[in-house]
Amino acid sequence: MNKDQVKGGLEQVKGEAKEQWGKLTDQPATETEGKLDKLKGKLREGYGKVKDKL
Prior knowledge:
Layout: H1 3-24, H2 28-53
């Protein structure tokens, strides 16, 4: 496991928290930001897995 995988996982957690906060406070912009953060985290984690195989 490399640092890209770890950072990707953390970004996913951060995104999930932001998404839930946006739902709770009825702020669609914050909810969307959270979804984007989760997506960035998944991409970074995937990049880390590919990088690890090389």
